[in-house]
Amino acid sequence: MVAPRRFQRFRHRAERYLGPRRHASGAGAALVLGLLVASTAAGRPLQAQQPPPALNYRLQATWESQPPPTHVALEWPEGHVSGGLGQNPESREILVTDLSDHSLRVYAPDGRFLRRLAGFGIGPGQLADPRDVDGLPGGRLAVADTGNNRVQVLAADGAPLASWSVNGPQGLEVVRDWIYVVSRPDRRVYGFSADGALQRSIDLSGRLSAPEGLAYRGDMTGGGAGERPTATFAVTDPQSGQALGVRDEGTQQVTLLSSPPRMVIAVPWSYQDAQYWLIGAEAKGLVISHPSGEVAAELTFDRVADIETLSDGPVLLATGSQGLALVPDLAYVLRQETDTFGRLLAPRRIGVGADVVLGDGAPRAQIWSLSGHPLADLRFDAGNPPTVPEEDIAAPADVAASGPWRYALWRSGRIRRLDPATGLAPTWRRKPAAAAGWWAWARRATAWPASTWPTSRWSSSTPTCSPRASGPRRPPDSWAPPTWRSRPSGCSSSTATVTA
């Protein structure tokens, strides 16, 4: 039993919580009193709830800057040396000579290996050190069979169709239905019809000592109706490091380039109305050069023996013992020093949803996969639709993500939904004081159907002393939290009010 004196203390304590003594006989007083008595009678106080166990986090991965690769290596036999490149004008299949295997390798336009043709030998349809290849109309192939001192025409399946003698053939180009080939010992460029009849002979002996590479530059303007267009070429000499411009009619020859040394091939290329040369060289790889000879960019390889600009934009490189390389975006090679895609520049904000949105020191937001690979780079500039105000061409103050939705907050108070496909979605503007905790508002916003999102911009209005007159009303779905703001000067009270 509980001592009478202790019982009196419990009664006074209950009256303190539940009111005067006349109410202590109620059910509430009896309940509280009973709990206190039972606790004391047991000789111990009521036990508090145990705290949850501590969380232990372990580092799973570290993300670093990942600029996209400049080129992709295609399937190629280890230890083999690639020679020349070409493309079938009808099927767009890629043709490559294998100097180690004395064969041709055929690839699909997407880079998949399809089949191997020919092999070593001196008979019809056999090859020895084939230096170059190109496609003829009708799916036929023209091959510079260097080791056998001839040019061969093969069917698409490798069956021999025609051949004729050429002394030490090197670079080869097909222009329309004629085959042009460089003869190093003769120091000439020969032009043949597809049946082997000689049509052109261009003497290079006065300018080049060991011509090798041949690249088609286009046709000269002019000429009468029905006349065959005059083709122009760039012929390169690795020994002298020169590229000479010639045409298949006339004797006019001009020096196009005189650097770098050991230049094997030079192919013209244009980007944004600017003219460049793609140069394949020994020990330097691919060099992108201005017509003046100034180097704009480089891709390092042991050797680039041939360059083929594919019809759909990418560039293919025969890189000798390194095999075959595909450059999907040559323009990126030009701007890779300044392009920031995949590079983290002082990252400071992160939001995680179906993917990850990152904010760093640049005026943009990056979207990465949950596995840590860059997917998109959304830049905030005046060219992005809708037009970005000048004050928002800056790094966002914060970013957030919820499921498939991504958001960015600017210091001006604007919030935009980010879409990698179309850029910036419609704009909302919250009152400046509401910036804190805005990510909770963004999370609630995703539950509202996109078709019902407001298309007009929210903006702050002139503050007044009336809470309901201090700004536009929220949508009826109560999707945003109330905005707290101090009352403006001149009001009778300085307490905070809630704007609805």
Question: How is this structure best described in words?
Answer:
This protein is mainly beta and 500 residues long. It has 4 helices and 34 strands. The protein has helices at 4-18, 27-41, 330-335, 438-445; strands at 72-73, 82-87, 94-98, 103-107, 113-117, 130-135, 141-145, 150-154, 160-165, 169-175, 178-183, 188-193, 198-203, 213-219, 231-237, 242-247, 254-257, 263-271, 274-281, 285-289, 295-299, 306-309, 315-318, 324-327, 349-352, 356-359, 364-368, 374-379, 398-402, 405-409, 414-419, 423-429, 483-486, 496-499. Strands 1-24-23-22 form a 4-stranded antiparallel beta sheet, with no helix packed on it. A hairpin with a 5-residue loop joins β27 (364-368) and β28. α1 crosses α2. The longest helix is centred in the N-terminal third of the chain and has 15 residues, at 4-18. It starts with a helix and ends with a strand. Mean pLDDT is 77; it is low at 21-25, 430-436 and 446-500.
Summarize the structure.
By secondary structure, this protein is mainly beta. The protein has four helices and 34 strands. The protein has a four-stranded antiparallel β-sheet with strand order 1-24-23-22, with no helix packed on it.
